[in-house]
């Protein structure tokens, strides 16, 4: 009999289990073979015939912002710090600003929207998207494409899904740097998290899928029954919709889960035997598939993966678009053809000569074909109309079945991030276990700096006027 069974081995589940295991008997259930959720590292067979057997894969390029104060504090328990990451870019870097060129009217409209939402705190509705805003202002097709690329890079949806308020809040992190890890996260964080959980006697069940939840009982697909006093569900709404017994806690769970899930991100890894000179920020290139790419070989410590110098972690964000060379969509292709075209596109976009041999290539093992379309196992929640998907709190408390995750909305950051997962977990723990004290850090945003600057100027002006009489 457990005190708590926690479903989901992502950052939120790990954080919840670590806090509760100080006092309670805890079981943590993970559907795959490793911890980390969307931030996990998985290894796949190398599709290049050489001595390198396995390929590092991730759910797209991972970036971590300096404003993630709770995350930076959280990783200290794993003997990890910001020093284990490399400063990458800021939102005000030349690469970003040179991309974000708009017409004068568009630029002024975006500036006013930023002032209204972040400084004057006249918030935009959770039904008002970036696409709605562009339609209202009359953005050009070129500018629409730029914002669409930017939205897909920054969060999990295009301009039709991304709320204008959320987009403006991401822009508000401008003063903070963007960081990349110097090691794969399974060596930097998740392996240490696993060891710490084991040290605290948390029973971790890998490769275990939950089929049903009843009061005080969790049913696994393999027939195992786990008896527990309390249950905490830390997986996204799409995963909740596939577990019997959870729909009663939400209004329209299945409908909203699929409407508000991440757009398709088909992930792959491609590596070369030489360092690639050309570099770009990660915003999609010109190919219709809109590949988000990042050369992790620039950030990982030397010889992290022997024989691999440049290692591109890639997300194909528009697999439904037609590849002009083959006249097929990504969904029309089998894995071999799809992967081959990804390698060719990377060579074209980064000017990689044939002298640079491709030494690793693989699709993320979380990809599979369903109904003739590629789908990704890790499908997170993106805040889109009509807003956050909150459970019935009275029913949660009555049944002692609680939920945490980005979709709950208890985070300062309203875009999906590792910071949001940790803050939402902390909020739930403070609610159900008042004895657990967790500090909550709130970053100083650009809008606050601007407001303070305006107030200082105003005060100086008033002092000058008063002294002039």
UniProtKB/TrEMBL annotation:
Q: Which UniProt keywords apply?
A: Membrane, Transmembrane, Transmembrane helix
InterPro entries in alphabetical order: FAD/NAD-bd_sf (IPR036188), Zeta_carotene_desat/Oxidored (IPR050464)
Gene3D superfamilies recorded for this chain?
FAD/NAD(P)-binding domain
The answer to keyword Transmembrane helix applying to this record is yes
Membrane-crossing residue ranges in chain numbering: 444-464
| GO terms for MF | oxidoreductase activity
The protein's name in its UniProt record: Amine oxidase domain-containing protein
């Amino acid at each position: 009999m457990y005190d708590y069974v926690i479903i989901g081995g992502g950052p939120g589940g790990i954080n919840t289990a670590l806090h509760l295991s100080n006092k309670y008997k805890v079981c943590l259930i993970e559907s795959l073979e490793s911890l980390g959720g969307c931030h996990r590292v998985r290894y796949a067979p190398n599709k290049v015939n050489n001595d390198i057997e396995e390929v590092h894969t991730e759910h797209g390029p991972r970036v971590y912002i300096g404003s993630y104060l709770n995350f930076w504090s959280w990783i200290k328990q794993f003997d990890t710090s910001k020093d284990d990451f490399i400063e990458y870019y800021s939102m005000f870097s030349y690469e970003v600003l040179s991309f974000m060129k708009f017409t004068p009217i568009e630029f002024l409209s975006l500036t006013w929207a930023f002032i209204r939402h972040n400084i004057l705190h006249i918030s935009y509705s959770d039904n008002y998207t970036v696409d709605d805003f562009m339609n209202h202002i009359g953005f050009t097709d070129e500018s629409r494409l730029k914002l669409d690329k930017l939205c897909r890079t920054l969060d999990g949806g295009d301009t039709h899904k991304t709320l204008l308020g959320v987009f403006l809040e991401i822009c508000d992190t401008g003063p903070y740097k963007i960081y990349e890890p110097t090691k794969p996260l399974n060596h930097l964080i998740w392996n240490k998290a696993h060891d710490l959980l084991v040290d605290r006697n948390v029973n971790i069940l890998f490769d275990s899928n939950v089929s049903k939840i009843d009061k005080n009982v969790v049913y696994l697909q393999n027939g195992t029954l786990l008896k527990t006093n309390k249950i905490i569900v830390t997986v996204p709404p799409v995963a909740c919709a596939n577990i019997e017994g959870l729909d009663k806690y939400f209004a329209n769970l299945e409908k909203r889960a699929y409407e508000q899930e991440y757009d398709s991100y088909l992930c792959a890894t491609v590596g070369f035997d030489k360092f690639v000179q050309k570099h770009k920020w990660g915003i999609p290139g010109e190919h219709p598939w809109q590949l988000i790419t990042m050369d992790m070989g620039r950030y990982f410590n030397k010889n992290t993966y022997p024989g691999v110098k440049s290692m591109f972690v890639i997300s194909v964000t528009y697999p439904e678009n037609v590849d002009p060379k083959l006249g097929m969509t990504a969904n029309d292709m089998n894995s071999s053809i799809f992967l081959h075209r990804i390698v060719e596109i990377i060579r074209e976009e980064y000017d990689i000569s044939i002298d640079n041999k491709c030494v690793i290539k693989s699709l993320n093992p979380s990809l599979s074909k369903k109904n003739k379309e590629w789908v990704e196992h890790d499908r997170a929640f993106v805040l889109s109309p009509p807003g956050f998907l909150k459970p019935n709190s009275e029913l949660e408390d009555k049944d002692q079945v609680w939920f945490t995750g980005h979709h709950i909305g208890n985070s300062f950051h309203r875009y999906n991030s590792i910071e949001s997962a940790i803050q939402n977990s902390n909020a739930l723990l403070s609610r159900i276990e008042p004895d657990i004290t967790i500090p909550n850090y709130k970053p100083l945003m650009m809008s606050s700096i601007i407001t303070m600057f305006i107030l200082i100027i105003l005060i100086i002006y008033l002092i000058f006027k008063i002294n002039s009489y």
